[in-house]
Amino acid sequence: MALCALIFGKCVLIGLRELDERLTLYKNNYDLNAQINAFTQYADSLRNAEKKLALFRHDSRHQLHILAAMIEEKKNDEALMLIHKLNEEIDQTKIRQFCRNTMVNAALSVYIRKAEDAGIPVQWQLDIPSSPPHTKTTVDAGLAIVLSNLMENAVYASLQQPAGRRKIELAARHTHGTLMFMIKNRYDGTVQFDVRGLPITNRQGHGLGMKSLEQFRKKTDATVLCTHEGGWFSVYLQFDIEKNIRLL
């Protein structure tokens, strides 16, 4: 009887270990897919900008000849309209730069564009440094994934709001080797928190996002604070970025 119990316990232990390995593999794949998706969409935006720039270069010489003729003929109003048109075409070729960190910029550009396309106003002021060339791996990738998850959650929550009550704000400051990041969005619903202070939800995929944040917190010894006050849901993240780069 004791032998049967021992064998049964061993089987349960093996089963739990295999389940844990499967969950870890699933989460790693989820993080990797999120990162690949962000860079794929960012690459698409780069290609679109390159196409627009090539077209602008092709047309600009002809348009500049027209502009010169208008100026010579003193057609100032027409010349001014053409200048405005050229400025708009130049603006369409720009790649939006949200911060100096390439990986984070790629991730944020995807979700900020999604928010704006959905009619959600986004305000940002981001000082996120670029890591040294030989360290553009763990810290940058982990931070990009975490911020992608937070932006995705903010967009989803904002879409539950009335059109006039939607807004997302992002802020980051890098000082003395410490990176402080804040993201907040308007949300008038109810938010419940678990014992770790992270929000609880049954929405598919959201739980993995919070697990990604928790894993990043443990890996980088970061400070994470989530609050819901005055109709705003906020997440604050702070960690020693230089210390974590040295540990790679």
Give the CA-based shape. elongated
Specify the CATH homologous superfamily of the largest domain.
Answer: Histidine kinase-like ATPase, C-terminal domain
**Sequence of secondary-structure elements:** HHHEHEEEEHEEH
- How many domains, in number, for the residues? 2
Strand content: 15-25%
InterPro entries: HATPase_C_sf, NatK-like_C
Domain Sensor histidine kinase NatK-like C-terminal: 143-238
Protein name: Sensor histidine kinase NatK-like C-terminal domain-containing protein
Pfam family, one: HATPase_c_5
Explain what this protein looks like in three dimensions.
The structure is a single chain. With 248 residues, the protein is of the alpha+beta class. It has 2 domains: 94 residues; 139 residues, Histidine kinase-like ATPase, C-terminal domain (Heat Shock Protein 90), CATH 3.30.565.10. The chain contains 6 helices and 7 strands. The strands form 2 sheets. The chain has a 5-stranded mixed sheet with strand order 1-2-3-7-6. Strands 4-5 form a two-stranded antiparallel ribbon. Strand 6 and strand 7 form a beta hairpin.
